[in-house]
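Hey, sorry to bother you again with one of my protein questions. A protein chain has come my way and I'm curious about its shape. It would help a lot if you went through both lines with me. I owe you a coffee for this, so here goes:
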Amino acid sequence: MPLTKSPFSIGKRFRLVGVLAVSLLLSACASTTAGNEEAPGNGDPLEGLNRMVFSINLAADFVIVRPVAELYRTVIPAPGRKAVVAFLRNLESPVVLANDILQGNIPRAGNTTARFLINSTLGLAGIFDVAAKMGFPRHSEDFGQTLGVWGMGEGFYLVLPAFGPSSLRDAFGLGVDYYMDPLRYWAKDTDQERLMLARTAVRGIDARARSIETLDEIERSSIDFYATVRSLYRQQRQSEIHNGEVPSLPVLPDFSLDDPDDDETALLSDD
């Protein structure tokens, strides 16, 4: 059966996330929070369901994801893994640029444009981050951050299957970013949608490979691993929304393709 017809294709997964997020967003706008404040209680009204999904994700990680990530880290040397991250980050540049513009941050939009042009040419399709050495540092933006910049609170906490910690706002943003990605339309028009799935798989494996020790340490030092991850995720997102200008504890593993230079357990901070 062709991959594009699979009920588990990445396109349909994002559509489900998007539809669910839109429905929840309409019912939760009145209770969204802003700044560093959380909703009444712990801001996690779906905690029972979230904990169940969290446990399923941990089981899948133990059985499949972590072993593959460990094999990837063993087989691919550090320079090769660094090139993978640089290449994937370069592919994300159009989505970052779109969110820079939507946030009204023209200087950052110019920086993103320069990085994409430089790394796509001098950086050999992005496998080398030449732009950073030329004074154009990398930053990351997504539509969840854009909504946060314009004052929308997180709504409430969510744990997504496979994707992990999120929120009502960020789950909706995840779907919007997917539909903003020009690579998606190229892949669809050229019948290469399997490449989108491959990109997602490689991105996840690489991120997990760089987070093994970090997650292990968080789990060892946590009384309640679920609650710790929830708290750290919220702090990190606030830091990202404010471009690093609010305090956070940057100890969550990097699932946003930050620079792993000299550190196999790269952190979630993007700036």
In short: The CA atoms of residues 165 and 230 lie 7 Å apart. The chain has one domain: 46-241. The chain has a mean pLDDT of 82. The longest strand covers residues 157-160.
